[in-house]
Design a protein that fits this description.
The strands form three sheets. Strands 1, 2, 8, 9, 10, 11, 17 and 18 form an eight-stranded mixed sheet that branches. An eight-stranded mixed sheet has the order 5-6-4-13-14-15-12-16. It has a two-stranded antiparallel ribbon with strand order 3-7. By secondary structure, the chain is α/β, with parallel strands linked by helices. 27% of the residues lie in helices and 26% in strands. It is globular and about 65 Å long. Helix 2 runs parallel beside helix 7 and helix 2 crosses helix 10. Strand 13 and strand 14 form a beta hairpin.
Length: 416
């Protein structure tokens, strides 16, 4: 079934009796060409591009809970490609280009809104760093514009420009950045993959890997044994636990990242705004709520809930740049489990075990990377070689000394 204005009109005139579930509920088969462990955004997009772009349709996506129950439905919906390093910027620019055509590609309304993202700067050295980043973005084919205080004032007149501690001197604007409805991304990719023959199997927990002489030949699950020529893992914050079942230890720690939504307010934010003197980012949803977040909680956890000190820190960041939101009431908050790598950049690579592949370590960048992650992972699975924009995302880069430390914060995931 393809969605269109004509279809909506026809269904409205006939009692909406023709709509069908957007994906099947299949039973797992005994064997597949590719088994994808993890039914979040990255797993679903990988399955979609495997089927659509590379013609591999004998694929199963195994999800412990329900599709989209993890971080794909627990983020702050921001998309952007305003990175600095050559190992990152081309990849995220590819992702943003895929976002721009995504709704037409999989015929589903993901509510992509390119309303722009502004990174505020508060000092001359920070302005110089943003000039450098903006130039790197332009060299990679992305858009970037440096705004002085006057130009930023016209765009965001409500900011506290004369804050005694954090005066706002301007910002780096990427007009093509913005937000996307996170749940709809999962649903759209699931629908697209299912329509091409991929089996989406929910409530199917992977409990082990089938190993034969150092080769991964499938998985053990709560719904039986499933054999596969290739097993692709992408389970975000559960990466270390799942891969340990194959005897692998990853350079990843799991931390909680909290997100927040305020009560509905009248339209005030033109796009996404990030605080340059602390970790705070905010946008406004179509319902009027301010959607915002900040740093990860500083302790290791697999719980999808946060802690009060981070709530205080995030709210302080918001008040520092927009004191007007001080009287807004917090409506709800939640946590997602982040797979934090030691340099803040991800992995899309083969593992030392033949037939076993890994995608993870996305830190804060998982949602915005969803299309490119799936496309590049599908490329790796189909051709057994990395996509050109993902060549640096190797598991052995720490041993080789080729870190991609985007923020320069050092090997401490709690600082990323």
């Amino acid at each position: 079934m393809r969605y269109s204005a004509l279809k909506i009109l026809a269904e409205g005139l006939t009692g909406n009796k023709g709509w069908r579930p957007i994906w099947r509920q299949p039973e797992p088969k005994a064997e597949y060409d590719v088994v994808i462990v993890g039914g979040g955004g990255h797993g679903l997009s990988t399955a979609y591009y495997l089927a659509k772009t590379f013609g591999i349709t004998k694929v199963a996506v195994l999800e412990k809970g329900w599709l989209g129950s993890g971080n794909i439905g627990r983020n702050t919906t921001i998309i952007r490609s305003n990175y600095l390093l050559p190992g990152n910027e081309p990849f995220y620019e590819l992702s943003l280009k895929l976002w721009e055509g995504l709704e037409q590609d999989f015929n589903y309304n993901a509510m992509i809104s390119q309303r722009g993202i502004v990174n505020l700067f508060h000092s001359d050295p920070q302005r110089d760093a943003y000039v450098r980043r903006g130039n790197a973005m332009r060299m990679a084919g992305a858009d970037a514009e440096l705004l002085d205080r006057e130009a930023l004032g016209k765009l965001c007149p409500y900011l506290d420009f004369d804050n005694a501690r954090f005066p706002i001197k301007g910002g780096l604007l990427q007009a093509r950045g913005g937000t996307v409805r996170h749940d709809a991304v999962a649903w759209g990719y699931a629908r697209g993959a299912d329509s091409r023959g991929v089996d989406l199997i929910q409530n199917c927990e992977v409990t082990g890997f089938l190993m034969n002489k150092g080769v991964c030949e499938g998985v053990e699950t709560s719904r039986g044994t499933i054999r596969a020529k290739k097993v692709a893992v992408c389970v975000a914050g559960s990466s270390s636990r799942v891969m340990s079942q194959a005897g692998l230890r990853l350079p990843i720690e799991s931390h909680v990242l909290q997100a927040f939504v305020s009560e509905g307010l009248k339209p005030v934010l033109p796009g996404v705004i990030t605080f340059g003197a602390g970790h705070f980012y905010v946008s406004q949803s179509d319902k009027g709520g301010l959607v915002f977040g900040g740093d990860i909680d500083g302790y290791n956890s697999y719980a999808q809930r946060g802690n009060l000190p981070v709530v205080e820190d995030v709210c302080e960041g918001g008040m520092a740049i927009m004191p007007m939101i001080g009287r807004a009431r917090l409506l709800r908050m939640w946590g997602g489990v982040m797979d934090m790598s030691m340099d803040g950049s991800p992995f899309i690579d083969k593992t030392p075990i033949s037939g076993l592949y890994f995608n993870g370590g996305w830190c804060y960048g998982g949602f915005k990377a969803t299309p490119a992650s799936g496309y590049c992972y599908a490329h790796l699975l189909a051709k057994d070689e990395p996509h050109p924009t993902a060549r640096e995302y190797r598991l052995d880069r720490f041993r080789r000394g080729h870190m991609i430390d985007e923020k320069g914060s050092g090997a401490q995931p709690n600082l990323h």
